[in-house]
Design brief:
The complex is a heterotrimer of chains A (292), B (336) and C (310).
Chain A: H1 4-12, H2 24-41, H3 43-46, H4 83-119, H5 121-135, H6 139-150, H7 154-162, H8 166-182, H9 185-191, H10 196-232, H11 244-251, H12 260-287
Chain B: E1 8-20, E2 27-40, E3 45-49, H1 56-63, E4 71-76, E5 79-80, H2 87-92, E6 96-99, H3 103-106, H4 113-123, H5 129-142, H6 159-171, E7 177-181, H7 189-206, E8 209-214, H8 217-223, E9 226-231, E10 234-239, H9 241-246, H10 251-258, H11 297-301, E11 307-308, E12 314-315, H12 330-335
Parallel strand pairs in B: 3-8, 3-9, 6-7, 7-8
Antiparallel strand pairs in B: 1-2, 1-4, 4-5, 9-10, 10-12, 11-12
Chain C: H1 2-29, H2 33-38, H3 44-53, H4 60-72, H5 86-91, H6 94-121, H7 126-140, H8 143-157, H9 170-199, H10 202-209, H11 214-239, H12 246-251, H13 257-267, H14 270-298, H15 300-309
Helix pairs in contact in C: 1-14, 6-7, 6-9, 7-9, 8-9, 9-11, 10-11, 11-14, 13-14, 14-15
């Protein structure tokens, strides 16, 4: 059997080269992200107070490190609300918005990219024109305009931020679907008589999933930054809800007297975006060098 | 062979593409396939040969209905080919299948072989779920793979094994027609013969009709009952494989045959003159005349028609039909 | 070349038309424009009169074309708050914004590009690591956090610089640094990867193997080729000159276009928002157009392509 040597190499070679252990910074990033997810999920259990609860006797109380009491480990704000509790709920809100928006963006972008690749012609041109359009406007300005026109709500905010980076997924999905369809496996499966649902859902999507996941990891911190920026401007998450950005926004009035109000959420924002970026870069280098 | 006529008939197929030169150039119309008619009997194999870019692969996709022709029609088993992508078209895939040049590209690298071989059964709802595993196993055996290789992923198999897997998948729904587009050209020489023999065995076993597209005249002869030679989107000669190979009538076929290395027949090689054909810039008259060693001025003006010689061979050449005497070739004349 | 310029111009016009269309659709979807512009407590007769006066009783496509026509003539509506022309309100804020964004752009380019090139040429050195860490930090620290930190240190703790306002040039220092540092980090990271990509190309290795001095390889081959992707991102930065300081202007109470936009959004002053949106889109599209044309100069392949077709 002349093909035997191939069989032997296939059987003895390890299925996949072992990936080296992630660098320390990435491990830190993964750890921090896990911590944030745990905080978001367990917010009700972890937070010592309700995030709206007032403690008027302990207004602007400093955190422990600055000589505060264990009653409010991270201090209190101008209304005596516990900064730790507000931080915990802010993490939940910000992560929820960022996850929701990233998933919406990926779903919308990928679907439009597939539509463009499948139908070609006018539909493809329309999608590409939309891609050009959204690439030609700074997203923050677009988001502000939409908020001005429609007013504000949490659902609108999530959907709006979901449109951020959709065009990246659309480009990737279209490009990879076209490549698969030209003469590759997608064309072969189409030739078997498969429906478009099967072609794109069962074959193309799993094949491009790693690229999409890397793109999502790279877009996630941008969404966090956008949300916190909008909330900082007072145009994102509205009170009584609280997010990391709105905490910084309201805390800036007490910058001189009580800097801890804005410093703690600011540190959380920076560490979270940093962690996800580090993980994203690492994933990109490992999984998908083409995205560089 | 049943009496009810040919399995596949194609008439006057034309496929045009718009090709741009440069990024912003004007679109140039390219006729990849320019009036091809062919007929395939049940249980028979038609070989289609020609250089790359002559439109043979496009012809294969057209007769399979993978894309719609701009002119002409294809009928399969007496019925017209449905519009590509339509539900009727998708259902018709169970009866006609394709085998690709690059088996690694044609397989989904994220699914095990057995799943992919069984996919046509799922798509067309053949058999109960429980019966499918047995059917997949039988298919794998039929193409010479071990059932345990079904759990492997495409990159874990050799090139020949992958092509066997692609064949097994193509045969899953027991199709009446198989279009093989250069099925062996990506394989090692030692494995090419195995796959060729496998194709012959499978045809004996299942009575499948085949359209065998290749640039390799010898491979085509080995499997075909008839062979058609294509040049720049048209069939220039068609006949029995032995006849065409031993006594080619068209000057282009002669050049192709002479290019086959043959022990003890050195020195007879016809080296073609001029540039290789460019479908975007089709010569007038007979498309082959700028490279033809026997072309005359008539060849540059009048397009020869594909018609039968007294011995039944179909040829499109003024000289081969004796309408004019052989010239000195266009290229030399211009140089003189 | 003419064909090249013409297609780019057509695409630019199409994008601006899409922004106008977007503004129109969003305006219509957001509710009854008459009601929004007249205010919720306006008497119904007044709202109806407004509708007739502005043609809001006409079919939607007639409205669309008259809207388009008005914008082409530079009529962008009036501010709800003080009744002044939106375009006047916006343009008088532009100099203040440019006073921040232009020096910041200079910082980005003068700091970011050399840092990126240096890091790429000394890959994996200590300097490279430092540049990369600062660059990642510059991307992950939001501008409002950076701005507030600078205020906390230089205005509150040290008292060297004012924390906000626009009274003197000293008020501009912190916002310009805030804007410039963040952008420089992005640019450094981008330049570094563009440079590394080019340095890995076979023609660089060929040139240095031929014995061309390394300095000449870098200046003659690597830099011009790395410039092509870098120009894109600088073009984007130029495009955001008018409205790239929304957050920073808010942090430092700087009365520029960004501050105007935030206030207009909070008050739902739609005419002003729409005016800024169009202005930003036009700036962006023009910047992209210039980048596209510069591409033609920098990349001989793109220059040659249309000539071949002609």
């Amino acid at each position: 059997m002349p093909e035997a040597p191939h069989v032997i190499t296939a059987a003895t070679a390890p299925a996949k080269p072992r990936r080296p252990a992630p660098p320390a910074l990435v491990i830190f990033g993964i750890g921090w992200l896990m911590l944030m997810l745990a905080v978001a999920l367990l917010a009700d259990i972890l937070s010592p107070y309700a995030y709206t609860a007032l403690d008027l006797r302990n207004r602007l109380s400093p955190p422990i490190l600055l000589g505060g009491t264990w009653l409010h480990p991270l201090g209190t704000d101008e209304l005596g609300r516990d900064v730790l509790s507000r931080l915990i709920y802010s993490i939940r809100t910000s992560l929820l918005i960022a996850f929701g928006a990233t998933i919406i963006g990926a779903a919308v972008g990928t679907s439009l990219g597939f539509l463009a690749a499948h139908f070609r012609g006018v539909i493809e041109q329309a999608v590409l024109a939309l891609v050009d359009f959204s690439a030609s406007l700074p997203f923050l300005i677009l988001a502000l305009a939409v908020l001005a026109f429609f007013g504000n709500s949490l659902v609108l905010l999530v959907c709006l931020l979901g449109l951020h980076a959709w065009e990246r997924y659309a480009r990737i999905a279209r490009g990879l679907a076209l490549a698969a369809g030209a003469q590759g496996y997608a064309a072969a499966v189409r030739g078997l008589g498969a429906s478009p649902w099967r072609i794109y859902g069962r074959h193309v999507l799993p094949n491009i999933a790693s690229t999409l996941i890397v793109s999502m990891t790279l877009a996630f911190p941008e969404v966090i930054l956008l949300e916190s920026g909008l909330s900082f401007l007072g145009l994102g998450v509205q009170p009584p809800e609280t997010s990391l950005g709105s905490m910084v926004g309201y805390g800036r009035e007490y910058l001189t007297r009580a800097p801890w109000i804005l410093l703690t959420p600011a540190i959380v924002i920076v560490l979270t975006t940093l962690s996800v970026s580090l993980i994203g870069d690492w994933l990109r280098d490992g999984l998908d060098p083409t995205l560089r | 062979m049943k009496a009810g006529g040919a399995l596949l008939e194609a008439e006057g197929l034309v496929r045009r593409y718009a090709m741009r030169r440069g990024i912003l150039g004007r679109a140039v119309e390219v006729r990849a396939v320019d009036g091809v008619s062919l007929k395939l009997e049940r249980g028979r194999t038609l070989g289609l040969v020609g250089e790359s870019g002559c439109g043979k692969s496009t012809t294969g996709r057209l007769v399979l209905g993978m894309e719609a022709p701009d002119a002409g029609r294809v009928s399969f088993d007496g019925a017209a080919m449905p519009q590509p992508g339509s539900i009727a078209w998708r259902a018709s895939r169970a009866r006609m299948q394709m085998v690709f040049q690059d088996p690694l590209g044609a397989l989904d690298r994220r699914l095990p072989i057995a799943t992919q071989v069984g996919e046509p059964l799922e798509i067309h709802g053949v058999g109960a779920r429980s019966e499918r595993a047995a059917r997949v196993e039988a298919l794998l055996r039929a193409v010479g793979l071990r059932p345990d290789q079904g759990t492997r992923y495409p990159h874990e198999l050799s090139g020949g094994q992958r092509q066997r897997a692609v064949l097994a998948r193509a045969l899953a729904t027991d199709p009446a027609l198989l279009v093989c587009d250069e099925p062996i050209s990506a394989l090692d020489v030692s494995i090419q013969a195995q796959v060729m023999n496998l194709l012959l065995d499978l045809q004996d076993q299942y009575g499948t009709s085949m359209l065998f597209v290749s640039h390799d005249l010898r491979a085509v002869r080995q499997v075909s009952h008839r062979v058609a030679v294509m040049y720049l989107g048209r069939i220039v000669e068609e006949g029995e494989p032995d006849g065409v190979l031993h006594e080619p009538a068209h000057p282009y076929s002669r050049a192709l045959v002479s290019a086959i290395p043959h022990p003890g027949r050195a020195g007879q090689r016809i080296v073609l003159q001029g540039d290789p054909p460019n479908p975007a810039d089709r010569p007038s008259g007979c498309a082959f005349h700028p490279r033809c060693p026997v072309a005359t001025q008539v060849c540059a003006r009048e397009t020869p028609v594909l018609k039968a010689r007294p011995d039944g061979r179909l040829v499109a050449c003024h000289v081969a039909h004796g309408e004019i005497t052989a010239g000195q070739g266009h290229a030399q004349k211009e140089a003189a | 070349m003419l064909h090249f310029v013409a297609t780019r111009l057509a695409r630019a016009a199409l994008t601006i038309a899409m922004v106008v269309t977007f503004a129109f659709i969003v305006l219509r979807l957001s509710g009854d424009p008459a009601q929004i512009i007249m205010g919720a407590d306006a008497p119904p007769e007044a709202v109806d009169a407004f509708r007739v006066a502005w043609g809001l009783d006409e079919p939607i496509w007639v409205q669309y074309f008259s809207y388009f026509w008005a914008i082409l003539q530079g009529d962008l509506g009036r501010s709800m708050r003080d009744g002044r022309d939106a375009i006047v309100l916006v343009t008088e804020r532009i100099p203040a914004t440019l006073a921040l964004t232009l020096p910041a752009l200079a910082i980005k380019i003068c700091l970011g590009i050399p840092a990126g090139i240096y890091a790429a040429l000394h890959r994996n050195s200590l300097a490279d690591r430092m540049v990369m860490i600062i660059a990642v930090a510059g991307f992950t620290v939001p501008s409002f956090v950076l701005g507030l930190l600078l205020v906390l240190v230089f205005a509150v703790q040290l008292g060297w610089l004012p924390s906000g306002g626009q009274e003197s040039w000293r008020h501009g220092i912190l916002p310009v640094i805030t804007l410039g540092l963040g952008g420089a980090a992005v640019l450094a990271r981008f330049t570094r990867s563009a440079m590394l990509e080019v340095l890995g190309q076979p023609y660089i290795r060929t040139a240095s193997a031929k014995g061309v001095p390394w300095r000449a390889v870098v200046t003659g081959h690597a830099l011009p080729n790395a410039a092509i992707p870098t120009v894109t991102i600088i073009g984007f930065m130029v495009g955001t000159l008018i409205a790239g300081a929304v957050v920073v202007e808010s942090v430092f109470s700087w009365p520029g276009v960004g501050r105007l936009l935030v206030v207009a959004v909070a008050n739902r002053d739609l005419a002003v928002v729409q005016c800024i949106l169009l202005l930003v889109a036009i700036t962006m599209v023009c910047a992209n157009l210039i980048v596209d044309l510069l591409y033609g100069l920098l990349d001989p392949r793109l220059r040659a392509a249309p000539r071949k077709a002609a």
